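Now for a sample.
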Amino acid sequence: MPPTHTVFVTGGTGYLGRPLVDALLARGYAVRALVRPGSESRLPAGATLVVGDALRADTFTGAIRPADTLVHLMGTPRPSPAKAASFRAVDLPSIQASVTAAVDGGIRHLIYVSVAQPAPVMRAYIAVRQEGERLIRDSGLAATILRPWYVLGPGHRWPYLLLPLYALLARLPATQDGARRLGLVTRDQMLRALVSCVESPPSGLRVVDVPDIRAMAQAGSG
């Protein structure tokens, strides 16, 4: 990997963003991370700080180069059905801004964390993420769309109680597909998959579902 390879990250101070920035820096990448004013101290040391508004492409497009990969992690923290308004106010305009900035900034590979589809709950969240996916498809950018259902990790542990149920559903033919598609992944698995996506960009559009996230994570741990 050339030492000049640079990745631009939105949401670089968040649940996935901070450890991803650390992981990329550890692998020798240069990282430029977009943060809002007042959050500068939360960015991992070693990353280049880009202060801007993730909802407005004009505030950060000019700071993207020399990055050729953009990882979009901006979104409503701890999504729930009660946050439908935030999905429309934050999640959707932020991916709109990132797609615009990626096209105008010369990005070759856009990485977007979406959500498993279809799913029985969180319809407002899924609808917004589907709109984000459509924006990416229409842009013509080479892109990777990851579709986890729930990412287990610090402060996000309650679904561990569902693991026995998932194990049972995965064994039953009638529920096997849904159990796999809506399976749980850990934050470490997501981070390994994200790094793998950065390191192996596609030539067109790639969709990475839960089984693929797990497979990428397993390959990355070897």
Notes: The chain is about 40% helix and 20% strand. The radius of gyration is 17 Å.
